[in-house]
Automatic annotation (TrEMBL):
The chain crosses the membrane at residues 12-34. This is Copper transporter. Keywords: Membrane, Transmembrane, Transmembrane helix. Residues 291-353 are annotated as: Disordered. One of its GO terms (cellular component) is membrane. Coiled coil: none annotated. The keyword Membrane applies.
Length: 353
């Protein structure tokens, strides 16, 4: 799906970036430069450490207050942003249940239609399950769907397959896959231990939000990269994907950080860090609206984010602009009904044609 990368800054950007500064200060205090014997390194005095800790507590209190303000207006800000749009949520094993519930609640306030929730398992993301995952998605691929021939990693192939099964067609708005094909793939992945979901609850989606946790990828770089490529490939089959997680997921080795470092992926998939904060959850819902309209961005408080949150949308959801050169779907001609033959009065001969 073609997207326009537009880094939109919302009206509360000043508050958001103030929070980002507080996060940075907190990181410095949590990992201070402690004195070491004969190391030659610069040391700090107990007074300096005490002052830094005090500033961190003040910064944290201010951040909590600012976040409370955002929480108080979040419902109004997202109201109607996704009216009648089907949104499906995909979660990772480390995603916080509170984050998932709060995002789902905001999606409801935005008017979104709940298209269901699919939970990825550790087996789906780790290297041990890679070959089995590829085998299943290849053998249960929906009719007409294709897998990449030059990118053979499990994240790409599983994203392409699930995208073909779960998304609506970006042009027509009709489901890409038949219900039977979608259920076949989901059931096969579930039986093999790659996903869990509640049967009968999964519906075709306009937008998919992938919710992850706070993993910085340092202990399992394969899983973080696998998630990033999965989200990227998922997006190629539909109208839009948002990858959202907590702050550490935006580290260079975290899933969000890996995706943001890829210029092409970053221009098509929206990312949000800090979803344990009200502004991050609000940004996730607003990003879903902008994705639906063909715009992508990187949001949150990490250094790799280009804005704190998308701008508040106005008016009804619009269809994304069609990329140059892409043909429009022709309207089907409506056949005019044939004129009914007039009955011939008794005793008369029909006129010759």
């Amino acid at each position: 799906m073609a997207h326009t990368s537009q880094r939109r800054i919302g009206p509360l950007a000043g508050i958001f970036f103030g929070l980002a500064g507080g996060v940075a200060l907190g990181a410095c205090v949590l990992a201070p430069v402690l004195p070491e014997r004969d190391s030659g390194a610069e040391t700090i005095t107990p007074e300096q450490l005490s002052e830094a800790r005090l500033e961190a507590r003040i910064g944290a209190a201010q951040a909590d207050t600012a976040d409370a303000v955002v929480a108080s207006i979040a419902e109004e800000t997202v109201s109607g942003a996704l009216t009648d749009q089907s949104v499906l949520v995909v979660t990772t094993p480390d995603a916080d249940s509170g984050d998932i519930e709060n995002i789902a609640w905001l999606l409801g306030k935005a008017g979104a239609v709940d298209a269901g929730t699919v939970q990825l398992t550790e087996k789906f993301l780790n290297q041990d399950g890679a070959d089995g995952l590829k085998t299943i998605v290849t053998s249960t691929l929906p009719a007409g769907a294709q897998l990449s021939l030059d990118r053979l990693d499990p994240g790409t192939h599983s994203g392409e397959a699930l995208g073909a099964a779960l998304f609506k067609d970006p042009v027509t708005g009709e489901p890409l896959a038949e219900a039977g094909e979608r259920n076949l793939l989901l059931n096969a992945l579930s039986e093999a231990g790659f996903i869990t979901y509640e049967p009968g609850t999964i519906q075709p989606a306009d937008v998919i939000i992938v919710v992850t946790g706070d993993d910085d990828g340092s202990t399992d770089r394969f899983a973080a990269r696998n998630l990033a490529t999965f989200a990227t490939a998922l997006d190629t089959r539909g109208r839009g994907v948002v990858l959202a997680g907590r702050l550490h997921a935006a580290a260079d080795t975290g899933a969000i950080g890996v995706l943001r470092a890829d210029a092409d992926a970053n221009g098509h998939v929206s990312t949000v860090d800090s979803i344990d904060r009200a502004y991050g959850r609000m940004a996730t819902v607003l990003a879903a609206r902008h994705e639906r309209e063909g715009d992508s961005g990187s949001y949150g408080s990490a250094a790799s984010a280009d804005a704190a949150a998308p701008a508040k949308p106005t008016g009804p959801v619009r269809d994304p602009e069609r990329p140059a050169g892409e043909p429009e779907v022709p309207e089907q001609p409506v056949a005019e009904p044939e004129a009914a033959e007039q009955p011939v009065p008794e005793g008369e001969t029909p006129a010759a044609g």
